[in-house]
Amino acid sequence: MSIKSSFWHNRHIVSDIRFKVHFMRIFGYARVSTSQQSLDIQIRALKDAGVKANRIFTDKASGSSTDREGLDLLRMKVEEGDVILVKKLDRLGRDTADMIQLIKEFDAQGVAVRFIDDGISTDGDMGQMVVTILSAVAQAERRRILERTNEGRQEAKLKGIKFGRRRTVDRNVVLTLHQKGTGATEIAHQLSIARSTVYKILEDERAS
């Protein structure tokens, strides 16, 4: 192959490589847990960090609703090599277990998650270490929740509450666990009820 032919051959390869490269895009996610809270501070932080307005996805709880349309849209938009910015760790998931599940889901897609205020990123070798540590924290939290669940059941039994299918029974146990700091996701898991049921019970209690 002549020098000239080699030049054009290599140039063609480089052109193909450039065509296939996926340029990193930065997305943002913001969430508040009640309809009374504002997203403004989180959105401002994301914009200051360089996220374009049309790439910021948000979720704002309303009543007992468990839908997260913003997160679902974000899941569909991101591709391998992209980065998601979140203001704080607790803004990604409703609890540690939920957050870890989402981080692992994005990691499997090749998408990194960076938490602005906490200075934590899930990309690179250090990122994998962060995921491992957070997973350990989630496991420890789950063990504490199991202990609280057992305590809640024992306390309910002492009050004369019999466990069964009736909603009033579930309601008392849910409220007892919630008062002990157990998250809605784990309450639903431990009591084998829908998470929407947990939110409805808590919402009814606040309204009463």
TrEMBL record:
One GO-annotated biological process of the protein: DNA integration
InterPro entries per record: Homeodomain-like_sf, Recombinase_CS, Resolv_N, Resolvase-like_N_sf, Resolvase_HTH_dom, SSR_resolvase
Residue intervals of the Resolvase/invertase-type recombinase catalytic domain: 25-160
SMART domains: Resolvase
Pfam families, per the entry: HTH_7, Resolvase
UniProt similarity note: Belongs to the site-specific recombinase resolvase family.
This protein's record includes keyword DNA-binding: yes
Protein name: Transposon Tn3 resolvase
Keywords in alphabetical order: DNA integration, DNA recombination, DNA-binding, Plasmid
SUPFAM superfamilies xrefs: Homeodomain-like, Resolvase-like
Positions annotated as active site in the UniProt record: 33 (o-(5'-phospho-dna)-serine intermediate)
Gene Ontology MF, one: DNA binding
Domain of life, source organism: Bacteria
